[in-house]
Amino acid sequence: MIDLPPDLPRLRTLRTWHEQCLREIDHAIAAAEEQAHVERQAQERRAAAAPPPWMVGLQDITGTPEELHQGGCIMWAHRRRKAVTRDEARELLAAGIRACQFCKPDLELGIL
């Protein structure tokens, strides 16, 4: 136990001082929680905005796979497309779907 003064005025002063400290700590906690919330939201927005690693361009009329792209490739930006996994991308290339000549997904996947 800590040594406290025996008289009432000093005890009340200590209580007031500790209440003030607790209020400041509570404000600091609230500010830190708000900052963490803002950072988490920003990270979620960045993650949502990131392109998938592989995209397959689809034929406009039939919707059949036509050309494979890396997710960041801008050559498919104006076309119909679908996100695919790495394994699906490898299967599409093995099935004869052509690889984009600009982003070269076949090189990235190790299929030539």
Label this structure with key terms.
single chain, 112 residues, alpha+beta, 2 domains, four-stranded mixed β-sheet, 3 helices, 4 strands, rod-shaped
Task: Give the topology, please.
Elements: H1 8-49, E1 54-58, E2 65-70, E3 81-84, H2 86-94, E4 98-99, H3 105-109
Parallel strand pairs: 2-4
Antiparallel strand pairs: 1-2, 1-3
Could you please describe the fold and organization of this structure?
- There is one protein chain.
- By secondary structure, the chain is α+β, with helices and mostly antiparallel strands.
- The protein folds into 2 domains: 7-50; 54-109, no CATH class.
- It has helices at residues 8-49, 86-94, 105-109; strands spanning 54-58, 65-70, 81-84, 98-99.
- The chain is rod-shaped.
- It is 50% helix and 15% strand.
